[in-house]
Amino acid sequence: MLLSAVALGAFAGVTQTASAQDATTEEESSRTMTTVTVTARNRAESIQDVPLSITALDESALDAKSIASLEDVARFTSGFSFENFSGGFATPVIRGQAQTRVTALESNVSTFFDGIYMPRSWATDVGTSSIARIEIVKGPQSARYGRNAFAGAINYVPRKAELGLDAPTGNLFTTVGDNERFDAGMTAVLPLGDRFAIGGSIIHSEYDGSWENDHPFADANLSPGTSGNSGGWDNESVSFSAIAEPVDGWVTEFGYYNFVISREMGANAQYAEASFQMNCGATRYYGDSLLCGELPGPADSVSVDPRAYSVQSDTDIFRFRTAYELTDDMELSYMFGRVEGEVDIANMTVPDQGDCGGSCTFQNAPIGAIDYDSHELKLDYSGDSFRGALGAFYTEGTDDYLFEYVLVPDLAEGAVYGLDEDPSAARFTLTDSTTETEVVSFFAEGQYTLPGGATRVGAEVRWSETTLMATNNATGLELEETFTAVTPRFTVEHDLTDYSLVYGSIARGAKAGGFNPTAVAEEFQVFDEEFNWTYELGAKNTFMDGRLVLNGALFYTDWSDVQINSPDPSSADPDAVTITLNLGNAEVLGVEFDAAFYATENLSFDGTFSHADGTYSDGTIDARFRRTPSSCDNVICTTDGDVSGNDIERTPQTQASFGAQWEDTLPMWGGPTWSVRGDLTYQSEFYATSANLATIPSRTLLGARAGLDWDNLSLSLWAKNLTDEEYVSNAYVVLIPFGNTYQTFYGPRRSFGMTARYSF
Questions:
Q1: Which of 59-63, 139-143, 355-359, 530-534 is most confident?
Q2: In percent, how much of the chain has pLDDT > 70?
Q3: Which residues pair with 346 in a beta bridge?
Q4: 180 - beta bridge partners?
């Protein structure tokens, strides 16, 4: 059993992790903690020896905790939260550094699939069925990983072909559960001699959703759309991989991965100023203009228009890597990646989706496609006292982005149309743009071991030049800008004992700027980069002869030039389209702990805890609150938009998890191992906006699993949100002079099922 709290790995190289075949496990009969060995820095080393704050969840942990999405990953990862807003604006948040712009093309956290950068948020949550390991790297990683690893990075490591196998390996699995849950799939690796192997997978997953949909036309079966319950999905994925070692020291890999995601609209509700649903703030056209206190929770059912749908995407990922050992200490490698994808999303934006009052409004965004190529050339050296790397990285890509409102009549008997089929639909385009991106980077890293071997010093640096060219397809306006950033990282680590490591690091994170093509004045058509400096002290410890692992980190982040949504200051129209400006600074102070303990031969515990206090610095302005007429009244918030000292929105300060597992051997049925496990996760309340008025309530969720494991067969019963907690998961807020709205989203309700897996 591998406990996620101690499965802490390191990323190998600049844009890739140690592959699945690079990881081995050793478990002693005395039930000491499992130790994972990785070749993360071009040599085999224990994950407890890596001076990085990283949580890695391997297949054992994913199964034990019933993890199926990034939302599940976040519940068991200190300092990491994730909400997808039931659409295309997924926002992973690491260490409290939440981006203020939900609709931003770029995220504060970079996501990689086997080392290939995933350029858009709608493509980041690919599930876990074909994944060998998910790694969350905390703290800025721009020096090592490059583009927009501002607060950290997510890396998916897929199952793939590997050398050194004597026979085919793989598994067949299926899941059946409540609300029409059905999964089926297989993965396999086939060795073809000592120097060649292939692998593949094919997986299907479907679910009707956990929220009852009481819309009168919930069973209209529109495609795309939301049919029956809300929050369901119908997803497919396939993969093919190959690896060859034609001569000693030369290894070449190829991988192809396809993800077809079809998610229904999740349970949600809208609260609108125009519907007289606010309870504080300045009095405007419809009375109060803001919400204060906890956002209203859900009822036992929701009403979701069947024409609405969440992510409909088709993503292809191609990966090619070849590496040659020039000497025993030196390796030259090249990696190519290509990401192609299409997406379509239609989110309903009215307070009552069962009765729109004659005209229903849908927000379609993003609609479009991505097409990116990347190249990386790297030279690695590993000697007795020094190791390092030099490399270059280049990527170019195109992003087509459409954001439109669609107005259609209420559904009625005899007139039930899909959103694209309704002949009376009126479409209003807010954004129709094409963005071309080119990034050139050079990087270097090195680590020196001081005499005695207990102390090591390291340095990394990356120089990046990002050139963006955006075209407004509606007006023909073209904008072009080049952003340059230098991002260093410095690390000192020391072995207190053979089982205790302490380290300190200083790192700079960078996130590229962008364009405001709708800005009236030229000076506001470009917004600048944002940066941070993060200072971290950490320790990794193994006690009690390997039965207890306790790791922790203390960090401080100084965040400058925060990119914040703002009305266009160059427009005389108070209802001017929102643009992005660099309007202030912020700072985050936090602590993280991860622990795991084998109490007895049969009983084990693991847990996580994190607290991040993120606040805006003096002089930081959120200009949305100073529009005329202002929502603020200089009582609950200031009319000049000053948010100095307020908490950063949409990120919980405190997160915690606690798990307990009992396992033993049955004396019957062939002597399988049986286990029962319970997991409790907690997330504190947090604010919906920088004004710190409306709050998303805290949540405590309970999960459980019971399993039987033979040598080749495993059966498990599992339940998520066992107490059927009904909770608001997140919200975004639209602040405009003629009527503010709060769009709230609800977390999934209780689900349960049975999973069977046969391994060979």
A1: 530-534
A2: 92
A3: 309
A4: none
CB 690 within 8 A of CB 100: yes
Q: CA–CA separation, 228 vs 219, rounded Å?
A: 5
φ/ψ of residue 546, rounded to 5: 90, 0
Q: Where are the alpha helices (DSSP H) in 118-231?
A: 142-145
According to DSSP, residue 662 is labeled: E
Question: What is d(CA 428, CA 407) in angstroms, rounded to the nearest whole number?
Answer: 8
Q: If we measure between CA atoms, which residue out of 535, 527, 467, 544 comes closest to residue 507?
A: 535
Phi and psi (nearest 5°) for 584?
165, -170
Please provide the size of the chain in residues: 760
Q: Where are the beta strands (DSSP E) in 517-585?
A: 526-527, 530-543, 548-560, 563-567, 578-582
Residue type, 670: G
CA distance 498 to 276: 64
What are the structural domain ranges in the chain? 20-348+362-759
Question: Under DSSP, is residue 523 helix (H, G, I), strand (E, B) or coil?
Answer: helix
For residues 190 and 340, what is the distance between their CA atoms, to the nearest angstrom? 28
Furthest-apart CA atoms within the chain: distance in Å: 82
**Cα–Cα distance, 148 to 138 (Å, whole number):** 13
| Residue 126 to residue 703: CA distance in whole angstroms | 22
Tell me: pLDDT of 578 over 90. Answer: no
Strand partners of residue 391: 378, 443
Q: Which CATH architecture has domain 20-348+362-759?
A: Beta Barrel (2.40)
pLDDT digits (tens, 9 = 90+) for 481-530: 999 999 999 999 999 999 999 999 999 999 889 888 878 888 888 999 99
Q: Which residue do the tokens 């000491």 mark?
A: 32
From residue 520, alpha-carbon distances to 121, 379, 576, 708 in Å are 28, 47, 10, 65
Amino acid at 435: T
Residue carrying the six token digits 């805006």 = 616
User: Quick one: which H or E segment has residue 560?
Assistant: strand 548-560
Q: How high is the pLDDT of residue 606?
A: 95
List, for residues 377-404, the tens digit of each pLDDT value.
Answer: 999 999 999 999 999 999 999 999 998 9
Radius of gyration of the chain (CA): 26
Alpha-carbon gap, residue 596 to 607, rounded angstroms: 6
User: Over the chain, what is the mean pLDDT?
Assistant: 89
Q: Which two tokens stand for residue 568?
A: 């266009």
Residue 507's pLDDT is: 96
Strand order in the sheet with 686-687: 293-294, 694-696, 686-687
